């Protein structure tokens, strides 16, 4: 069905919002009036109309959108259920590995101990992936829930750095700060961002070296940066670093990842009303930073 648009108006069609045909009266070829005040639908583009509107096409577009939307919802539900169901067996495996490691240490069998520790490393990677999938599901459904509390930020930074020092003794992790301060935020989520920054700094510094964690505060915000001397990134990659699934070096087998960590980190900082960014130069290293405004308790 083709309808003539006497006003050369337009239809604004957007996935998330209703659109309305304008003007409210339109003529067909037989000069009969068509009322479109209540005709609404959802689709993916903006269509400019100069002469004719194909109503059959719009209805078909609506049906395709509805089908795709339902498919997307089912995928999100499957993702949520799968990541949740994986939690229990992974936790059990981690418990058994911990017990096995203690037994192996007593028997002083270095080869078995090495295999157990390697298995733990792979399971930890799986735990991180499952956690990222759960965060992705939360973001798709709205946003990650924040559980804010007052905590000492300096203690959090020191705890993170100490953990990485134990796991990566070949790296020199240095903390510089101009203040020791308590902040009101979600400590676990902020720790998640900091861990992501430090782990990336280590991962993309194949020749080890020095990693600087710098903390500074002003009257109204806290700024944290993590600087490495690794391989850096090309300038063309910088605008996309915090995009979902983006990887600066997808074809380099030395660097494993799924492109979720920095995206989730960005969303955490945005929900804290802060800012996040990166400065990087290829073959010279990167500096990832974020800010947190000082907030009053809810």
UniProtKB/TrEMBL annotation:
Its EC number is 2.7.13.3. This is histidine kinase. Residues 81-296 form the Histidine kinase domain. GO terms for molecular function: phosphorelay sensor kinase activity. It comes from Mucilaginibacter arboris. It holds the Pfam family HisKA. It comes from the Bacteria. Keywords: Kinase, Phosphoprotein, Transferase, Two-component regulatory system. PROSITE patterns: HIS_KIN. It catalyses: ATP + protein L-histidine = ADP + protein N-phospho-L-histidine. PANTHER family: HISTIDINE KINASE 1, TWO-COMPONENT HISTIDINE KINASE.
């Amino acid at each position: 069905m083709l309808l003539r648009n006497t006003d050369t108006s337009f239809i604004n069609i957007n996935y998330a919002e209703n659109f309305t045909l304008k003007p409210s009266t339109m003529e067909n070829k037989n000069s009969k009036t068509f009322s479109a005040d209540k005709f609404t639908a959802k689709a993916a583009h903006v269509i400019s109309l100069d002469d004719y509107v194909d109503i059959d096409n719009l209805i078909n577009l609506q049906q395709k959108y509805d089908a795709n939307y339902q498919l997307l919802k089912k995928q999100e539900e499957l993702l949520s259920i799968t990541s949740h169901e994986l939690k229990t067996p992974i936790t059990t495996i981690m418990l058994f590995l911990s017990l096995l490691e203690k037994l192996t240490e007593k028997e002083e069998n270095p080869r078995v101990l090495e295999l157990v520790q390697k298995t733990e490393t792979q399971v930890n990677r799986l735990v991180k992936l499952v956690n990222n999938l759960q965060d992705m599901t939360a973001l798709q459904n709205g946003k990650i829930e924040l559980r804010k509390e007052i905590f000492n930020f300096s203690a959090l930074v020191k705890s993170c750095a100490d953990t990485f020092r134990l796991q990566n003794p070949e790296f020199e992790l240095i903390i510089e700060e101009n203040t020791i301060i308590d902040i009101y935020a979600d400590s676990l989520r902020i720790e998640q961002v900091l861990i992501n920054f430090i782990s990336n700094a280590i991962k993309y510094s194949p020749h080890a070296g020095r990693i600087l964690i710098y903390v500074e505060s002003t009257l109204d915000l806290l700024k944290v940066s993590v600087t490495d001397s690794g391989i850096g990134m090309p300038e063309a990659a910088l605008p996309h670093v915090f995009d979902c699934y983006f990887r600066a070096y997808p074809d380099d087998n030395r660097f494993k990842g799924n492109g979720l960590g920095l995206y989730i980190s960005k969303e955490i900082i945005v929900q804290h009303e802060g800012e996040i960014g990166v400065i990087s130069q290829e073959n010279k290293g990167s500096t990832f930073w974020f800010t947190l405004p000082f907030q009053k308790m809810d």
